[in-house]
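Two proteins were folded this term; both appear here.
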Amino acid sequence: MNALPAWLNPQLLGPIAVGWGGRILAAIVIFLVGRWVSMALTAWIVKAVTKAGVEETLRRFFQSVIYMTFMVFVILTAVSALGVPTTNFLAIVGAAGLAVGLALKDSLANFSSGVMLVFFRPFRVGDYVEAGGVAGTVDAIGIFSTVIKTPDNRVITVPNGLIYGGTITNYSAEATRRIDLVIGVAYEDDVAQAKSLIAEVLKADDRVLADPPPTVMLLELGDSSVDIAVRPWVKSGDYWAVRGDVLERCKRSIEEHGLSIPFPQRDVHISPQAESAGRLRDVG
């Protein structure tokens, strides 16, 4: 109580009030201006990301992360304007960030892989891909995982780390695809006739592209058949339908013209000595 009048001395409180008042005003101005600048920069970056074709989910996530990052710098600058040392605070934040990073290293790896998938775009929503040990149509690209729907209507969620860390095969990346078929005929059949019949089947199908032209050629002399390579080009969306129809029509045309499609078979020849030995064992 005896020291209270000394603390309430106007000559002492005046400079303190003026000094802290100026600091507080400066901190408020820095915070308000910094907040406005952060919002403007975030909106500009989000607009650029939107033009790049980034999905809505990732766009919102990037907006939140970018805005929070800017605001952290604004708050640190405002606190520094008050005269509060921020070195210790930054050290605490850095240590906490390191601990969180070690605890969430798998999630952060999936997140970073998701960012790489968004920017490099090896596939898009709706593409049929084979990635992360799963084959199907991409249903959604999330922050930490990608949703793939299989042809039998199963929905599989694959971590982005597995996808980006492995081989990605995109079957929908190009507008056209080549169908690779091997059709075998018997050795006694006319190979030239078989090739002509197959070419007629391809020509009759409007879905088979004329450019590049389909290929029908002798591939190899197999163990049980003469194998003919059939390689037509089609639109990517017609791949499976054309493949099934071409196989069926080629089989029908070959059989209708007296040719045959052999199946693997093996001729077994028994020598007279082996036959006699077999009879002796039966008698014994």
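Next, the second protein.
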Amino acid sequence: MRRSRLGEVGMSYADDFIAAAADARTVLLAKGIQEGSCNFTIEPEAEPKLIRVPPQALTKFQMEQALGDWAEGHVKEAINRPGDRWKAVSFGDSDKTMSEAEGFAEAYREGKRRELAFGKRADLLLFDKDSDVPDDFGALSGEDAEALCSSCIAALEVRSSRTSAGRFIAHREAQKAAGGSPSKMEPGITVKVEDLGKVYRWVARNAKPLAYLQVFFDRVYGLNFLDVFRFIADQGKKLRLEDPSRSGKKTIFIPVSTARLVGEVAQPTFEIVHNELKDGRHDIYAKPVGGNIDIVGAELQTLIGG
């Protein structure tokens, strides 16, 4: 298993986290990121005059959502298997109502207000195995959820990828051996700059570790969010800000060699989903089914600083 090259979590996670965020903020400002996009504070963020509700969900979004749900569900199942020390409970928004459905707009706005006040909810919370807590916090208000968060051990944000990490690395190495110059030698974890302040608010308010789990089709890599800020700070002037969608939303690519290998994946199969919407549009996409994820408890414990 690969260990983080950025250092282990210190005695006081909150202190380390706040210090690393301050260093990262200096780098981001020097790279031209606006003050508001890296305003790391526990105070609620001011609500904009208009919270834009996304239009009708596109097929690509539904496909990515299905893949994300598959990854999150199997990670939760792996952590909750008998013998492990934790209980994983759902924390993120589990509402799958489509954007054209009645009530979606107000529910979306309320979720954004909650995020501005309390920070970005991770997908899963970890508790001691015998904790008497609900299996799903998704529907709880910000105040009720925050009260229960005080007894959690850590939070996990589960990311999904349509890539087999091992094959990606082998292919890039073969290209390089043949004289090529691949732009990236390994896959990675992509972090949105606009999410940094939202994640900071939740971690700083709750003083709990938060880690990303990147689920590929063969491996699961973990990266503590403390090490996200350390990566930004260590890169300094060399930090690359990307905009893969040309949307103006900057992202940071962190190679998996910076992360920790925490699990293995048995690839799922796929079934076709076909939905006809009210306006006559047909959504057709592939949904992952089956497969399996195994998480190594000792590696996860080290990842979250246990």
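Confidence is low (pLDDT under 50) at residues 1-11. The CA atoms of residues 18 and 30 lie 19 Å apart. These notes refer to the second protein only.
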